[in-house]
Amino acid sequence: MLSTVVGALVMGLIFNGVVDAGIITDSSKFYGLMSVPFWQHLIIGSILFGAVFMATDPVTASQTNKGKWIYGFLIGFISIMIRVFNPAYPEGVFLAILLMNVFAPTIDHYVVQGNVKKRMKRLKVKAA
Known about the structure:
The structure is a single chain. The protein is mostly helical. It has one domain. About 70% of the residues lie in helices and about 0% in strands. It has helices at about 1-20, 30-35, 40-45, 45-55, 65-85, 95-125. The longest helix has about 35 residues, at about 95-125. The protein is elongated. The N and C termini lie far apart (about 40 Å).
């Protein structure tokens, strides 16, 4: 849950930074949602509902601890991107959850492989 909120806040901060830097002007079609304060993205739509009740589904979510953080962060990150860049689909939380449910096994696979490599290095150091 916390990682989803962190991902949404990071994406909101990035968009606010882009607007503050002058990269996106008020004549751009993306200016409206990019200029929204980063914390308001949490209360505008259903991102908190999705983070608390839908992204935490134990069957489809990532199973490793590190994978859960990556999974949640990317849900928040992608949901704000969908909200800003796709005016036809203003609430991107559920699409982001669906996309990350597809990639959850891949995230777990790479997290487990990283742990295996770390343990193999540790084993080689002890054996030497």
